[in-house]
Design brief:
Layout: H1 13-31, H2 36-45, H3 50-71, H4 73-78, H5 80-102, H6 106-146, H7 155-171, H8 176-186
Helix pairs in contact: 1-2, 2-3, 5-7, 6-8, 7-8
């Protein structure tokens, strides 16, 4: 069958599919998020074990997260007093999630994958209505600020929420960008509606 496609004998069509899926996942993440819905199944499809496929997928989309940080460096500077505690909270949650993932047996994780993908799909399905609600909430919050009252997020609940969300990101990660945007918006931060993962 490979010869019928005109491919040399040393080329495997699975790697071509993997490259195409990776490219499309990157485009999807750049536009709206959700690239993991393509890249993770593609890794499974070429025979990579589930835990390794998930870890590889997370590491593969990591450079895109760095570009997001660079793009929002002005926002980070404006909220510098939150950056360090939230960074440490994210590091803690993500590290614990990754350690739990790496200690999850392959068969157990494989049984969890449909539920994790369903959870991620529900997160993306809810993103439109939730973002519209958050936008209305943001407009109301701006009205409060114009009236002279500036809400200040409480650090402990914000850090605990970050640990919880980043645990999920470290364990599976699909829909992570939307979860983080929603969390920050609920705590009163002005955020972009674009998410990745």
């Amino acid at each position: 069958m490979i010869h019928n496609l005109g491919l040399p004998s040393y080329m495997d069509w699975r790697y071509i599919w993997l490259a195409v899926a990776a490219f499309l996942a990157g485009v999807l993440n750049a536009v709206a998020g959700g690239g993991s819905f393509l890249s993770f199944p593609a890794l499974l499809g070429v025979g990579i074990l589930p835990v390794q496929a998930n870890a590889t997928n997370t590491v593969a989309i990591w450079p895109g997260q760095l570009t997001s940080v660079a793009a929002y460096r002005d926002d980070v500077r404006k909220n510098l007093r939150y950056a360090l505690p939230l960074g440490l909270s994210g590091l803690l949650g993500g590290t614990v999630g990754a350690v739990v993932l790496l200690n999850t047996p392959q068969t157990t994780f494989l049984h969890l994958v449909p539920w994790l993908l369903l959870t991620a799909a529900l997160i993306f399905a809810a993103s439109g209505p939730v973002m519209r609600w958050l936008e209305r909430r943001s407009v109301a919050a701006r009205g409060v600020r114009l009236a002279g009252q500036t809400p200040t997020p409480r650090m402990m609940p914000l850090c605990l929420s970050t640990v919880f969300v980043c645990f999920y990101v470290g364990y599976f990660g699909a829909g992570a960008g939307f979860l983080l945007i929603t969390m920050f918006s609920l705590f009163g931060f002005q955020t972009s509606t674009r998410s990745t993962g």
